[in-house]
Amino acid sequence: MKAIWAARALLGSSLLGRRPSSAPPRARDRAAPPRSIQRCARATRLAVARRAAGERRGSRAQQRRIAASRRRIAASRRRVGASPSGPFGGSSRA
Fold it and tell me: Is residue 90 domain-resident?
């Protein structure tokens, strides 16, 4: 639900000064439909939760590769001194 409001806020109110539902058709075409945004957000949240719970995807070999790359990334972050914030690292070189 929150995602829909975020999308609405981004598209509508600031540009139009009135309810996004009454937006001119062109603006509505350009905007991504809130439902897809919501679906995407839910999928990401689920994936994050699963990873936190320790479930992993892929074959053993793949998991080994993934784990290795994660370790490498973590090591480089420690070197740079960045905080591990999100998938894109907390620094200029993630």
Answer: no
Q: What is the pLDDT of residue 44?
A: 81
pTM score over 0.70: no
Instruction: State the number of CA atoms in the 13 A half-sphere of 40 facing the CB.
Output: 9
User: Domain containing 42: what range?
Assistant: 2-57
User: How many angstroms separate the CA atoms of 69 and 53, rounded?
Assistant: 19
CB 11 within 8 A of CB 20: yes
Region of 17 (left: φ > 0; alpha: ψ -120 to 50; beta: rest) is left
CB-CB contact of 90 with 84 (8 Å): yes
* Assigned domain for 85 exists: no
Q: For 19-68, write each residue's pLDDT tens digit.
A: 555 555 555 555 666 777 777 778 788 777 777 666 666 677 778 888 88
- The reply to whether 87 falls in a domain is no
Domain count across the chain: 1
